[in-house]
Amino acid sequence: MRPRVFCGIAAAIALFATACGSGGGGSSAGADRTGGAGQATAAGFPVQVADCQGRETTVKQAPKRIVTSNAASLEMLLQLGAGDRVVGTGFPPGKGSLPAALAEQGAKVPVLGDKVIAKEKLLGSGADLYVDTFGAMPMMGAAGAGPSEEEFAAAGIQHVMLLSTACAGTPKAAKAPRTDLAEVENDIRRLGAVTGTAARAEELVAGMERQIGEVRTAVAAVPAEQRPSYFFFDFDAGTKQPMSVCGRQVANAVITLAGARNVFADCDADFKPVSWEDVVAKNPDWIQLAVRNRGSEEENRKAFADAEAFLRGFPATQGLKAVQDGRFLRIGSEVTTIAGVRNADTVRQIAATVHPTLVKNGQ
Hints:
The chain is of the alpha/beta class. Helix content is 35%, strand content 13%. It has 14 helices and 13 strands. It has helices at residues 9-14, 71-80, 100-107, 119-123, 149-154, 163-166, 182-195, 198-219, 250-257, 276-282, 297-313, 321-325, 334-337, 343-354; strands at 47-50, 56-59, 66-68, 86-90, 111-113, 129-132, 158-161, 229-234, 243-245, 261-262, 271-273, 286-290, 328-329. The strands form 4 sheets. It has a 5-stranded parallel sheet with strand order 5-4-3-6-7. The protein has a 4-stranded parallel sheet with strand order 10-8-12-13. Strands 1-2 form a two-stranded antiparallel sheet.
């Protein structure tokens, strides 16, 4: 067995070095009060957006210099057509992790930090907007202590959060499992309003809704108790102790919308370390071999093969019915666990695998 390192919450954060994201409860928390659309014009401003505690920020005009905390918020801005205004990012996208149409532009964005951007560098970046995927991260100690709101204001930087990913660990986070992508769609609209690209945001959301609606209709007749059970095997978080995706994680909504049942949906968190005994007790019908994009098809195939080989060779998992029957899904971590437009594609991909007679993959 290849040695792998697990380091609690830090492992979940490291998972997203290519495109970090975490869970968030609810489907409409901190809803915006926005005006009309426009491509980086004055139309629709000012825009008010709230953070995880309900504190509001008023964005008076479209930003000209944006810094993103990681590849999740960066990809949203690229999808919205605001990528030319991004002047820096933390947790940069790994090679091959962005859609091909966005990869060249994404690769040109300066990297201000391989992980969390140092406070001094962020405040001195010259940005007028910081899009924050994380929110407060006290579990990371000093590394997670970002600027205060007063420091942001003094530097002339407005601070906007992706509520779908930043709020899972806050006291006000919804406790019920996340079963839809409404808050992800709200974040796309929120960024569209803030950057003056609201029309494009509506196009992206409409595409997501269309794809999800087709899947929802196709699997509607399958009773909840008959939907296949599903385990997201986070191979890159380590094999010594598995990391589950819980009810608050975006992946729970993706799995649920696809007509499957996340075996760890009942844990009240976004990510949580579990034991292999817990996984064996769940005995899932399907297992997603979730790996980070390695940058090439060949390397990705090898990573998926390594994940499968581990499950087939590990004594605790050899007898699982999914392993015995070869019921594996080779779908990357990023498109499942981060908030973004491609969540809808993953819903269809999972559904087409676990319900092949009901859902077809692709458009």
